[in-house]
Amino acid sequence: MKSRTRCPACLSTSVTVAYEEPYRGAGIQGYLKTHYEGRATASADAYTFRIGRCGDCGLAFQQQVPDDELLGELYNHWVPSTGLERNHRDYNLDQYRNLAEQVPFVIAYFGLPPSQLNVLDFGFGWAHFARMAMGYGCAVSGIELSAERRSHGESVGIRVVDLEELPPQQYRFINAEQVFEHLTEPRQVLERLMASLAPDGIVKINVPNAVASLKKLGRGTGFGDLSPDEQMTVAPLEHINAFCADSLEAFGKTVGLKPLRPSFRQLYNSASGLLEPRTLARTLLRPVYRHVYPRSTFMYFRRA
Ligand SMILES: [Zn+2]
Prior knowledge:
The chain is built from twelve helices and eleven strands. It is α/β, with parallel strands linked by helices and about 300 residues long.
């Protein structure tokens, strides 16, 4: 384990302890046993689950975090099996639809042909987002730590790159889905990503919202008494940066980013194309001439 005494987002040294509980206490031990399905060793037991709160940007973060050795042990041996097959099997229509709304939103935002959109998927996992973006014609590069996932990424056509070797001002869109809560040094990482962002580029950061859990811990609820969903947002050792909306916005600000607030029209239209005058008629009429008043040569067949 190692200690973080400065805020990992704004680098302030004004940090107070918001919550602490020893790893060997019943609440954390119960969580470790269940969450890691018995695979957790005693490696962290001498330490304290201590959440610090930054006096400047408001970020809550775990102050004792895994060193490289424990990170290796944690992600290679403890974390529940999230192999490709299981991950793929558990992914439902709504989750794909969610991705299929984000990609056209980004493409429509730039108003460029998809082939001109260089996308970087930072922490691409099993490549769900990356494959969706490729499906829409974007050129997708990706970064991923796990060797197994990197090789899967390459096999589906992602250009796998390293954070250290990103080309300058290259990407119009950088996707960071469920990554920043895990990083020991999120500020340094965001700075590197920023150097590779095109001047008009956008960055998406999605992290668990820890606001409810932090409130409860602050009122004296023990970690073991949080619901499983609440525990997840501040998960010991893994979700070491516990963001809420304000601290996420402040984090972006440290590197010169500000939130992009899309209009309802942009958001709903990216899902359906219904609100764009240019595509409205086509979107409304295509199902009609294809399937309702079928005189078209587009047919789905099934057995008679
Ligand atoms: Zn801070």
